[in-house]
Each structure stands twice: as C-alpha cells, then as structure tokens.
C-alpha cells in the first residue's frame, strides 16, 4: 500500500515543479516583454525630472504621475538588472513615444539628459541677448532683475561694460541651468576668441589693446553681413584710424541713440553729439556696439590691404558695398547707390 502513495507524492511534486517553472517562465516572459516594449501612457512632449536626493521609488512615482504605466515590481527588477537602481543621474529626461523602459533607465543611469539650446546671434547687442535669454525655457531667469553693472559683477567682471563680451553661437543647457551660467560660458568663449585674434594680429595694426580690437570688430560686424567684405571694411577703418580721419559709421550713431532709434537716421542724428557718434568724435567709440563673431574678430586681426577710405551700399538689396579711395569717387558711388535703391523700390510697387 505504501508504494502507490509514494508514486502519488512523486507525481504531485513533479506537477508542483512544473507549475512553478510555468509561473516563472510566464513571469520572465512578462518581465522581458515589459523591458523592451514601448512604454504605455507616454504623452508627446512629456519628460520626467530626477532631482538631487531622488530615490528609485520617488522617480517611479514621478513616472506614474506623468502617465507612464507599469508595475513598480517590474520597474524595480529592471533597474536592478541594469545597475540603475542606485545610480540615477540628476536631470531631465524626455519620454518619447516608442521608448522602452530599458532605454529610459539606461538614459537615467548614464545621465543622458534633455539638452536645450539658446542662440546668441552675430550683431546682437546686450538688450537682444537679454531678451533671448528671458524667452529661453526652462532656463532659470536669474539675470532679469540685474542691471548691466550688477550683471557683470555677478559674472566676476565688475566695472566692465557688457556690450560685445558674449560670443555669438548656440549654447546647450540643461534644466536647472541659469542665465548667469549661459552668459558665463559665452563670456569665456568670447575671451578665448578675442585672445586668439589678438595673438594673430598684424604687427603694424593701429589697435593698441584687445578691447580696441573687440570694439572695431563689433563695428565691422554691424557694417556687413557679407563674409568676404569683412577684411576689406576692417582695412578701410584701420586706414582711417591711422590717418586720423573720422570713422563716420552709422551703426555707432544708431547705438548711441539707444531706444530712440526708430529705423531711420536723420541729418540731425548725425550731428547730435554722443560718445558713440563717430561723425562728431574721432577714434573708436568707448565700448563695442554689438556682439561680433569670430569672423569679424579675425578680419580685424588681419585686415585686407588696399587704399579705399570710403564705402557705401550698392543699394540693390544684396548687402554688398562699393569702395572708393577718394571722396570724388565715393560721391559717384553714392549716386549709383541712389539709382539702384530707387530702381529696387520701383520693382516692389
């Protein structure tokens, strides 16, 4: 009678083991499917932020609040398998439709945070830069209430004018970065570019300091958007400075007018004396008038040779200029400009 009982016990054990194996196989299949299947509940444009001190359970609650579905057990098991449970990096992480839990946890483990961008455009002045930063999200806006003097003091350069001090380019930032962070990087980038240009300057340059180079580069930046013209215009201004001629450049007058500039320069504006009016004052203005790019800095460091002392726009909308070595030739070019301008205006009517 004992033998059949043993057989029944053995069969029960086998059935129990089979059931356990089946349950484990199902659990593994479900876990494996969860790990590499697109996350459910992800909304376009959603993200999750890991803050200092956040644990895995805290992050999982943030994911649930963002609409992401999945059991805490599955997320925890996957995080442990990937070595991410105790290594979640601080930052913002984008939740893309089609992204899998494995991809998200690897991003969090390796710190592949969302990167945002803000661009400082060549020729912008400090007001333009401030306005762009004020619109950049999710940048922390810690410079908005600072005037220019306080801003430069905050950046570690008290007493320095901010104009021209921030290199035009696109800057990448992450959530938690501030306007001061971006401006600090832009300042260092400009200083590096200016130092390089100053080291490469021609030996016979009339410029005495890097600051003078920065100021002249800002004028060249505002005078032309044509890359090949920059060295020619830089050379023309160099010759004027050496001869003691007035620079007579409109962008400096416009800068001196500030917010009073309404799009046109009148004769009265050219005659109204300000520290930036190069029609009434000799030499360079007291500060740069815009943010020059690297190309303008290099043009001033190595200006083109020549004998031109005057230039005027072609007037056909191309942005190009006519150069002249004498006032008489310049006056002829002015007439060409007026003729081209009137013809261009007529075609628009």
List keywords for this structure.
349 residues; mainly alpha; two-stranded antiparallel sheet; 13 helices; 6 strands; 50% helix; 7% strand; elongated
Structure description:
By secondary structure, the protein is mostly helical. It folds into three domains: 31-110, no CATH class; 116-193, no CATH class; 206-348, no CATH class. 50% of the residues lie in helices and 7% in strands. The protein contains 13 helices and six strands. It has helices at 2-36, 56-65, 72-82, 101-110, 126-135, 148-154, 179-199, 210-223, 230-243, 250-257, 267-271, 294-301, 327-348, and strands spanning 46-50, 91-95, 116-119, 170-173, 310-313, 321-324.
Short description:
This protein is mostly helical and 349 residues long. It has 3 domains: 31-110, no CATH class; 116-193, no CATH class; 206-348, no CATH class. The protein has helices at residues 2-36, 56-65, 72-82, 101-110, 126-135, 148-154, 179-199, 210-223, 230-243, 250-257, 267-271, 294-301, 327-348; strands at residues 46-50, 91-95, 116-119, 170-173, 310-313, 321-324.
How are the SSEs placed, and which strands pair?
Layout: H1 2-36, E1 46-50, H2 56-65, H3 72-82, E2 91-95, H4 101-110, E3 116-119, H5 126-135, H6 148-154, E4 170-173, H7 179-199, H8 210-223, H9 230-243, H10 250-257, H11 267-271, H12 294-301, E5 310-313, E6 321-324, H13 327-348
Antiparallel strand pairs: 1-2, 3-4, 5-6
